[in-house]
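Sequence in, structure out. Go.
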Amino acid sequence: MAAGREPDGSSTSDEEWERFLRESVEGTADAPEEPSARARDVAKRLRAQPGGAPQGWRTHTPAQPKRRTGWYVAGLLAALVLLVVALAPGRVVDLFTGDDSDAPPLAAETARPTQAPPSGSAQQPTEAEPFRGSPAARWANGAAGITVPKAEAVGWMSKAEVERALARSRDFLVASGLDRGVLRGERPEKAMALINPHQADVQTFLKTSLRAPSEKADPLLLFSRFKTSRTDLVGDTVKTRGLLTYKEGKRGALQVTADVTFVYPTTRADSGGDEEIVRTIVRRELVLSWDDPDKVITEPGTFSIVSYKYDMTNGGCGAPTGYLTPPYGTDRQADTTGTETDPYDRSAPVAPGKSSGEDCNKATRS
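Output:
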């Protein structure tokens, strides 16, 4: 007979071989070390049966106990969420509406947005968090919210000169809309010093508007001012969002356009403990011309004003007084006339709408 094969006349039945193989797989003490040819035949038939092949020799793996740790983790997380909601429900609302005062500021604005910012929460401002419930909560503070583009040579100016002109253009916005003295009603000397003193019509406007404000000569077109006997600013922070852009203007001048929104949290000066906070929102669009001194009479470090317009909400209605006059209490409730406007929507240019007078713009949110 051939080596390694069983004799043809074996008297062992197939059933006995199958039983023997199963016992070997299950670890029977006398299991053979190597299967015979007949064993391999039977194993082949077993693999063809439903349920698949038995495990290989000496490869049996004991069953592992089932783990249910997932349920415990999920329960623990749910308990933590409920605890946070119970201890600080307002913070949870802020988290989902983007009004969290601890959230990082929005990225700087580098182009005009295509739509208004999403609606915030109904959370009311407080003295500690005067921008709460407002898109401005995530805006940058002060000058940091005014984007200055990278400078390149334009017209008569070199790259370095354009860079200086852009910096001074932002300095004007800071001096006119963020300077604490100017906000308290002081004369805007630093801002006025940056305006070309030889631009006669603008110089006349400045003198007239500060002395006798009118609808045609309103200093609020250029400067933000509050009367301290009536209005207090809440905290030291003004939120801003906007940018400068530039191109070559007439006679090779550097023409800079500034489009910036300022948000001022205020309260009544004589509130007597009444902490009603009203946010006054002012958006200004200015076009400034840094002229070639060989072509236009000007002074070094000054610009001419090409145009100016602004949009203001929660700054008061009626005849211009030269000051922003936020409405409080019953005055605010009575201020229901005029065109509704979203003061945070920067997706369109500043419209020549009414920001003063009897039917000035009414903010849909503040």
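Check: The beta strands are 140-141, 146-147, 231-233, 239-248, 254-268, 277-290, 304-313, 340-341, 362-363. Residues 1-7, 89-98 have pLDDT under 50 and may be disordered.
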